[in-house]
Amino acid sequence: MPVLRSQVRRGRAAKQQPNPDPIEGEAIATRTRRRLATAKQQPNPIEIARRTRRRRAAAAAPKRDRPINGNIVQADTTEIERYEQERSDRELSQAEMRKTMDDLNRRIHDQRFALEILQVPEKQWRAYGDHYQRPYGEGSTSSSAAAAIETETFRVYFKGLVSEERIRDSTVTVAAIGVAICDSRDNLISELGKPLKSKEMSREAVEIEALIEGLNAAHSLNLKRVEFLCDDPTLYQYFSGEARPGGLREFKITTLCIQVLLLKTKFMYCRPFLWHKMMLGMYLNLQGMLYFLKSLGL
């Protein structure tokens, strides 16, 4: 059988090529297997695109199409109920505040009208007394009622009490505060008293706590002009800015005084005044209220 020239050439070329190194061939095979394993571990670009489209579609879907968790629904229901309760309490508080302010404006209106009547001469009163009238409500504008409470100067009386009581085998420090808010003629408008709970309580600190409570109460009544009683000359100097508490031991007093100064800025007019004998009655009333709280063990 004749041999072709092409077969002869291929045979000669195969004889001329050297035999491959077995070690080098194994290394090439190892690298090839690693590349194949790495390629299998990497995500397919098409699969990545599909996942991205699914995430975007889920994010753009309406909330009703998403699965609802029972815990989330319960938490939302509790939050709604809490909001409704807070709104109801706020509306009730605002209604009570409006009623209190209306009663206060009515009282100021009546007192001022009574003072004007007292200044009318007797002869003029006999002749025209039946025609003197100033109705409150429909005959009074809201601006005049607001002006009445803005021009009236109210008084804030406050007192703090600290004492050590023997309870069983231990000594306990008991503190309480009392506050009374009156008009310019010392007619009582509001009063409150409550105990204080603190590990370290000094007489001055309790006094300032009582004043803070009184100023907050006056501000909640929407009073614009207030004066507050001080029976301690040192505290009077603190509140009027004539002196400042100093030292590390007075840090708490300084903090409380700063609160008082900040509260004073919420009023159109607010200043301290020293106690005198004309205010003895209200002072004794506060003392009696504090001792009553103390007797209850508060």
Automatic annotation (TrEMBL):
Tree of life domain: Eukaryota
An example Gene Ontology molecular-function term: RNA-DNA hybrid ribonuclease activity
InterPro entries, A to Z: RNaseH_domain (IPR002156), RNaseH_sf (IPR036397)
Domain annotation RNase H type-1: ranges: 174-270
Disordered: region residues: 1-29
Endpoints of the signal sequence: none
Name of the protein: RNase H type-1 domain-containing protein
Organism ancestry: Eukaryota, Viridiplantae, Streptophyta, Embryophyta, Tracheophyta
